[in-house]
Amino acid sequence: MKPASADESPQLSLDSRFAAGAAPTATQPRVLAVAELVRAARMTMEARFADVRVQGEISGLKRSGPGHLYFCLKDEAAQLDCVMFSREAARLKFSADDGLLVRCRGRLTIYEGRGKFQLSVTEIELAGAGALALAFEQLKTKLGAEGLFEAGRKRPLPFLPRRLGVVTSPTGAVIQDIIRVAHRRYPVPILLSPTPVQGAGAAASIIAALGRLVTVPDVDLIILARGGGSLEDLWAFNDEALARAIAACPVPVISAVGHETDFTIADFVADLRAPTPSAAAELALPVATDLVDEVQLYRRRLGRAAAGEIRNARLRLERARTTLGDPRRLFDERRQVLDDLLGRAGTALRVQMGQRRAAMRGLEGRIFRAHPARRIAEQRSALALLERRLGGTGALLLGARRRAVESLAGKLQALSPLHVLERGYSLTRAPDGQLVTSAKSVAPGDTVTVLFRDGDITARVEKGRKG
After folding, report:
1. Strands of 447-452's sheet, edge to edge?
2. Residue 366 to residues 359, 362, 377: CA-CA distances in angstroms?
3. Where are the beta strands (DSSP E) in 227-326?
4. How confident is the model at residue 466 (pLDDT cuts 50, 70, 90)?
5. From CA 280, how far away is CA 284, in angstroms rounded?
6. What's the fold here for domain 135-151+162-286?
7. DSSP at 435
8. How far is CA 423 from the centre of its chain?
């Protein structure tokens, strides 16, 4: 659609939308609400610029949580705010970034919430390099940074697979080439997992076909194959999900997509890249006749090596026999040496027995002198002497102690208060139990206890007299 000409003023279109309403008078002009004005402007703009294409450089790109893209298109003279919603952004074949020169298709509109003039973008294509080439390089860089292309994670191919799995189209020449080359080299069973190899949904179909082969227990190797074509034709093999499925596949994968000059992301992720599907079959299987020739060669080498080892063993046996001599002579020498050793051992044994007998006789004499009965008699005599000496000494000590005790008892009897009471004296105690030693210590009316030789009495003090 062509943009409005200079004489087709948006204001004229805006006024015509309100012609059906009350016409403003000269003294009472029509007053519009902000929402009315912005909505009318949006509808006018969308009607006139419903499908426009604009070229410019992306600037200030932002991605929202739901996946919407917000950016500016700018050139040397101006800039235009743009929005691309997630449903359209998901269809992009490349990652939009700042600085890319692009052509955007969409409609001009106004975001009423802010009165913001913007372009609602539905398609973006590169104005410089092709979108597919850029998307290829971006995905290659991303997966390479994650290590999916590292040689260390790639597995060696089995020497001779039990069954060869093939993921390709069932109708093309690719599968026939693989079968022909494989059966010519080594006729192993081949299991085809058919899938479309180009077009919409081809990548998902290839992933499903790969998954089906993984479930077959005896599939040891998988060939992922397609004939040549343009970048667009091969694009299914540049899918990120397919690349990750190949990397996660538990069975080694050979990628044989396109011709020798064609490269896809699947080639970089696979355990081995083959330039063509036929070359993939050659890499997957050895030649049976070559294996037979190699086995025959190894058999001849083994025979020669075994014969050589047998000759060497015989030579070593002859040398050992020469060195050892007649075994009977060796036995005779050993018997003579044994007889000599037995004689020497008998002599040494007799000498040691004589020494042991002499030592035993010496020990018998010492034992006799130290006989227990003799020593017991000596100890008994000594014990009787000690008993007599102990009895005399004890009697003397006991008499001395008895006399000392009697002397102390006499002294104690003389000093005892009870002895004084025997002579007619008495002891008087106050109510608190203290001895009354002075008339001043009691008063008339006090109760005292008087202790005699044969008992005590309780008395009350009637009167006192002080000296």
Report:
1. 427-429, 447-452, 455-460
2. 11, 6, 18
3. 253-257, 272-273
4. low
5. 6
6. Rossmann fold (3.40.50)
7. B
8. 109
* pLDDT, tens digit (0-9, with 9 covering 90-100), for 44-71: 888 888 889 998 888 889 998 888 999 9
Q: Which two tokens stand for residue 145?
A: 């940074």
Structure pTM?
Answer: 0.45
Amino acid at position 135, single letter: A
CB 121 within 8 A of CB 87: no
Does the structure show a pLDDT above 50 at 319? yes
Q: Quick one: tokens of 1?
A: 């659609």
CA distance 51 to 74: 19
Q: Residue 408: enclosing H or E segment and its boundaries?
A: helix 372-415
- Tokens describing residue 344: 């020497």
Q: State the number of CA atoms in the 13 A half-sphere of 294 facing the CB.
A: 6
**Rounded to an integer, what distance in angstroms lies between the CA atom of residue 199 and that of residue 167?**
16
Average pLDDT over residues 350-361: 88
Question: For residue 317, what are the CA distances in angstroms to 304, 311, 320, 411?
Answer: 20, 10, 5, 121
Angle at the Cα of 385 from the Cα atoms of 379 and 386, rounded to 5 degrees: 85
Distances (CA, A) of 235 to 135, 194, 244, 254, 263: 10, 18, 15, 18, 11
Q: Which residues contact 234 (CB under 8 A, 6 or more apart)?
A: 198, 226, 257, 258, 262, 264
Alpha-carbon distance of 159 to 280, in angstroms, equals 14
Q: What is the pLDDT of residue 105?
A: 92
Q: How far apart are CA 145 and CA 35, in angstroms?
A: 50
pLDDT in tens, 384-428: 888 888 888 888 888 888 888 888 887 887 777 766 777 777 888
User: For domain 10-128, which architecture applies?
Assistant: Beta Barrel (2.40)
Query: Phi, psi (5° rounding) for residue 172?
Result: -85, 180
Sign of CA dihedral 45, 48, 50, 55: negative
> H helices within 186-287, ranges in order?
202-214, 240-248, 265-269, 277-284
The rounded distance, in Å, linking the Cα atoms of 251 and 239 is 20
List pLDDT tens digits, range 29-48: 888 888 888 888 888 888 88
- For 228, other C-beta atoms within 10 Å of its C-beta total 15
User: pLDDT by residue (tens digit) across 215-233?
Assistant: 999 999 999 999 887 777 7
Q: Tokens standing for 427?
A: 């002891």
- Rounded CA separation 259/398 (Å): 136
